[in-house]
Amino acid sequence: MPKIIIGEVVETLNEPLESGRYPAIVTRASLGIVQSGVNAGAEKLELQIRIAGKNTVRELLIFSASMEWKIFRFVKATSLADVGDELELTDKNVVGLSFDVLIVKEPKTFEGVTRDVNIIKKFLKPELTAVDAADDLVY
User: Cα separation of 13 and 43, whole Å?
Assistant: First the structure.
């Protein structure tokens, strides 16, 4: 049995963040197939997204006509491709992408226990800081 020395708890991770806009980065991705529901049999890309350097949220991009809107928003927010471009979205080319997210804090019940969780409502292009905006000016 492994032994460890327990240290002080510095910060509790995955405490839900308040609803709002936060920076995010894809830390892990895996391809798979949707097993049940309306999109059963469709390919999916499961993302682990680190929000504000604190919380990890899982998000699914499902490759079906009814879910294209979500993929389009993700691609636009990450600047991975432009409208009209053909793109192969894989677990390899999304890890490390950064963008902003609009999240909400909502109660969810798991196995009879209700707790607050963060849910991504929208993928957004990162906000420019005043310095970044000044650098983008054309003279």
Answer: 31
Question: Phi and psi (nearest 5°) for 67?
Answer: -115, 5
Question: What are the domain boundaries of the chain?
Answer: 20-135
Q: CA-CA distances (angstroms) from residue 35 to 43, 70, 91, 100, 128?
A: 10, 19, 19, 29, 39
Q: How confident is the model at residue 131 (pLDDT cuts 50, 70, 90)?
A: very low
pTM of the model: 0.78
Exposed e or buried b per residue across 58-85, where buried means at least 16 C-beta atoms within 10 angstroms of its C-beta: ebebbbeeebeebbeebbbbbeeeeeee
Residue 79, beta-bridge partner list: none
CA dist., res. 71 & res. 56, Å (int)? 19
